[in-house]
Amino acid sequence: MMESRAVHDGERARDSPIMSSSAPRVCRKCGAEIFADAPEGLCTACLFETGLDLPADETDEPPNAGRARPPGAPKMKSGSTGTFGDFGDYELLEVIGRGGQGVVYRARQKSLNRTVALKVIGLGHWATEAHLKRFRREAEAAASLDHSGIVPIYEVGERDGSCYFSMKLVEGGQLDEVIKREPMPIRRAIELIAKVARTVHYAHEHGILHRDIKPGNILLDGKGEPHLTDFGLARLVETESTVTRTMEVLGTPSYMAPEQAVGNNARISSATDVYGVGAVLYQLLTGQPPFAGGTTYETIKLLLDTEPRQPRLLNPKLDRDLSTICLKCLEKDPQRRYSSALALAEDLERWLKHEPIQARRTGVLTRGKKWVRRNPTSALLAASLVALAAAACWIVWKSELVRRPMPAGIAVLPFLDLSPAKDQEYFCDGISEEILDALAKIEGLRVVARTSSFSFKGKNANASEVGKKLNVENVLEGSLRREGNRIRISAQLVNARNGFHLWSQTYERELKGVFALQDEITRSIVDALKIKLAISLPTHEQRNTEAYDLYLRGEYEFRQAESSLTADAYDRADAFYRQALAGDPNFAEAAAELARSRLSRHWFVSPLAPPELEEVKSLIDRALALAPNSPEAHFALGLFFYYGHRQYENALTEFNRTLELQPNDALARAYCASVYRRRGEWERSLADYQRAQELDPRDTIIAMNIGNTYLALRLWEDAERAELRALAIDPHNAQAALFVLSSRLNATGDASSARRALDGFPEGAKVSPTSRRRGLGDVGAIIGIWVYLDVIERHFTDAFQAFEKDVGNDDAAHLEQLAGRVALRVLAGQTEAAKSMGEEALPLLESRLREWPDDAFALTRLSWVYLALGRNADALRFSRQAADSTPIEKDALVGPYFQNGLAQIEARAGAPEEAIKRLRRLLSIPSGEAVSIARLKIDPVWDPIRNRPDFQQLLSGPEQIGPGR
Predict the structure, then answer these.
(1) Please, what are the domains in the chain?
(2) Burial 691-729 (b: 16+ CB within 10 A, else e)
(3) Would residue 212 show up in a list of annotated catalytic residues for this protein?
């Protein structure tokens, strides 16, 4: 499918500990996150690797086939047979986990010849007494517990200044990794959590609080039985740990109880662990944790200020009792949770036995009290009312009728070009975007992304209008005048609510001072907004001004290329980037952006040959070598994995790394959502798309992707609503119009109704050379949805005429035209005309396939040509090859299109049973744009099998609505 930027391309990268007094840094050796008290600037694994004094000839081979080496993990020795070092009686095999102070290895205990999990405090001789106390406490806590549901400790010791303990190796994997691969059935989830709750109760009976219960600390063995591990935050119930007082680690934000989040140690009790168990239960039932903001700050704020969403809203299959149990665990007040983990386990077991549960739904009065606690100011006003009923009415009125106040945040508008020649638009845009990017790195500040801010370019909108449309409180606007090597910038920060100027300043500088000027403006904005920074703002490196000017020209041309999707526009952008690199070979951002431009061309316009992709990778490697923490470089690497090789796991790692470096990056967030969608994690995908939309509310592509995701889930009304929102932002967007048509057509099977959905939109939205959606594998992708509306109504003469109007001018478009003519004649039953046109198209398509043997769309087109020529066996062979190239298991978004395309060929090439079996599967999974029962009923492509009883039975059966479980 032809997608603009992210149409076909996501919970955070990982849960990181909360630091109360120190901010995370990055390991100077491997780039992994470390903590502010980490010595030598190294992470735990690298510190331990240094202590082992591993040979210098280490390679970067992964420790086990098919898995990437974890960041910071010790590397394999060259020629190694599976080990990378010895540690006393233990032979270290691979890194299987790590935390702030410890690293866990799969190891072989030589004396007993058994495989164990070995946890070592990675700080070695740099470890402080506090580190050692916490580490020993974990070992002592776990070793004092003898329970089948707790990972047993074998040995505790110390060697060469490094404390360690060995424990049983549980082979089944962490719970969070297991549920990523496949959602857990509801009943199985309840059985598992009941066992975990009983295990937690056992620990409580023996005086141990865990305090970090999360899916990653629950291991499943080969039989699927849960085992609780990682007592690194455990403490004795009856004592206050001196380690606790350091406040270095509190827990994991998305599964942390409120009393932990605020550091209220006096209130930490067994109820804190009940909350953690409930948060894991919520994750298993809904597919997401109770609270997950884009940043640690946002997660904690949600945790403290809001109630979790009703689980039934996220998973309609849940009954009221399960929602009640889950929410009781997550009460803000510990006294309102289950009295013990045992009580929770017993209530879950009652549900499993279909017995009445003990928990009760929160009543109106209690919900009102909670609201009062969260809104003390409004509560003071409500106190003036004389009756409780009036107070309840006040709460309802406040929550439903009063418009929510505009949240704090900032939009950076493009600076106006006041230069005499009016030829500095690229420079004005570039400076504005540099300031925007600098602000976007500030965690806790909502910065509206470029697409939305720049949508007001040239529209003379005032700050109040911008604030309302973008839902922000502050707007930065300004102008720039450039004459030769001198620039003059005037900027002002305006409160969008009242129009007051919070700050304004005019600067005059030589061009070489532009880098310091950008930093000065950013710091002034931060000061004006009274933002307290956790870390210092990064400063721009002084560089060659001519190279920087060329770089900004490249950025401008690249934006034009993204819009036009023409090879010439990409050529112009690439030329400027290359010139910038020639002028400054150390310009990391120029290398990263050149790579990004090349990858965008590869995905949207014409594929790059393997040597060209290798050149792209070398550019990214160069950028990362020059600037290891460059968000642009990590984002480009994510695109390389995504666009270049469809390696979605690696891509997700890099997009999440981009978000760590630049929390307000809406585009990186959208690409995370795209990866989740291709992996079939639909709810997580929607959540990340919605977060991206909050950061970039006027980005048409994000709105389109939300709609297309709903379309795959067969949530037709939600899909149409989202796509119409995209069209409201850009009424000429033909791609959004196509999705509106698909939503309406697949929901109703009514072509006329589909057309009416676009009444009132300009004709420019209704015809597009890209409407044939390159990259998808069914006949609709070959002829285009607009033409297919005529086919649905069996108006073939109109379809022929409409098809010939939509003619592209490149080689790919010519091939599409030839294949489309053949497919239309086949659908119309014009056998001889189809055969004649097929003979014309065949040599060209075969030539294309020899040049690009992996072109799945060319395989699909060729299968229709073979069908027209009566070569059914060849048609089936090529269609199966196309389907095999993108299986659903690898790509949950695009895979169904190719499966549907194969079913279409099977229906017409003498394999009807296979076609119906394939359709039955597609109707049981999210594949709503490719297949719906309403469309099957009227689509002429299925005419050859329409009267078969098994096909008619298919039409009366169910289809999957929503993500499924």
Answers:
(1) 37-168 (3.30.200.20), 175-359 (1.10.510.10), 363-402 (no CATH), 410-542 (3.40.50.10070), 769-955 (1.25.40)
(2) bbbbbbbbbbbbbbbbbbbbbbbbbbebbbbbbbbbbeb
(3) yes
